[in-house]
Design brief:
With about 325 residues, the protein is of the alpha+beta class. It contains 11 helices and 4 strands. The protein has a 4-stranded antiparallel sheet with strand order 1-2-3-4.
């Protein structure tokens, strides 16, 4: 079994986009975690000298033997939390790649523990299995799939603005649909980043093992309108990521999400994935199986968010409050 244990970038299917992790607080000095600025650092030092002149010894520093805040996750920077989320999510996964042309993703089955032990490991369960698609093994099926891709190119004039902007993580599209605002829904955005990070790590494992070539590798008629990512086509990363995030958002938002919005939420995930076929990067089968993988990953993500005392439980609780307050 191959452990999935790493921290991959929060990016779309092969494209290095914004990871949603606002590590730079905008300060260009050295005092609040921003980038270093020599002039500001000197100004701060001289100001400090003027303010502390006349104070003897060490002044009156704050000290307490009590434990740190219970909400310690809220004290950490966003990039620190992002690494904690990734660690928790990837620690519970392993990837079975022993069979050629077929691979399975498993998860540790976690149950609430007793006393000081937060969880018990009860065993493992299958999340999802994928195998090389039929079109990569049968010439007739390949021709059918390629024909679908070529027919989708007719949509390029209409879809090109979406295709270009969705190279990066499509926060804006979900914000438009759900009326998400940076201040009121900052934890929801952070949760979406964690979702996309896990998706990228998992999808790359399947892509590497199955190694299915892209439409443009097979036919000179495809001619993609954006750069072709440097990895395999199957399963589709955009399909996995967006059906994953749509399923998680539906569970997170709950009663604040009406029936019309639920329909639109999943329609958005489908459209974003379809745009990659229109662009010439994927087959429809890539999206179909990517969607199935994303939905199963959403269940695993929600299980991880129920582990008491975990960073993910903290994140889910705070993100959910952002929506219950709006009802």
């Amino acid at each position: 079994m191959q452990r999935l244990f790493g921290m991959g970038a929060f990016s779309n299917d092969g494209d290095d986009g914004d990871d949603g992790d606002d590590g730079d607080d905008g300060d260009r000095g050295g005092g609040t975690g921003g980038r270093a600025n020599t002039q500001l650092a000197q100004a701060l030092w001289r100001t400090r000298g003027g303010l502390t002149r006349g104070i003897d010894d060490i002044g009156t520093p704050k000290w307490t033997p009590a434990p740190l805040d219970k909400d310690v996750f809220g004290r950490w920077a966003g990039d620190v939390r992002a690494r904690m989320f990734s660690f928790e999510l990837l620690s519970g996964l392993y990837f079975d790649s022993r069979r050629q042309g077929k691979a399975s993703l498993y998860a540790v089955d976690l149950a609430p523990g007793q006393g000081t032990v937060p969880v018990k490991i009860r065993g493992s369960y299958l999340i999802h299995t994928l195998e090389r698609p039929l079109f990569d093994k049968d010439e007739d099926e390949f021709e059918k799939e390629l024909t679908k891709v070529l027919r989708k190119t007719a949509l390029r004039p209409e879809r090109l603005p979406e295709i270009l902007t969705q190279i990066f993580l499509p926060y804006s599209f979900y914000a438009m649909l759900l009326n998400m605002q940076p201040g009121r829904h900052r934890h929801t955005r952070e949760l979406m980043s964690a979702v996309w990070a896990l998706s990228s790590n998992v999808v790359m494992q399947f892509k590497h093992h199955l190694r299915v070539r892209r439409p443009s590798d097979r036919s000179p008629l495809v001619q993609p309108v954006i750069p072709v990512p440097g990895h395999g086509t199957y399963p589709a990363g955009h399909a996995t990521q967006n059906h994953f995030v749509a399923t998680v958002l539906e569970a997170l938002v709950g009663t604040a999400l009406g029936d019309d919005l639920k329909v639109q939420l999943h329609a958005l995930a489908t459209r974003i994935a379809e745009n990659r076929v229109v662009a010439g990067l994927h087959y429809e089968k890539d999206n179909e199986d990517g969607k199935a993988l994303g939905i199963e990953l959403a269940k695993y993500f929600q299980d991880c968010a129920k582990v008491p005392g975990s960073a993910l439980e903290w994140l889910w609780t705070n993100a959910q409050r952002e929506w219950t307050k709006n009802i």
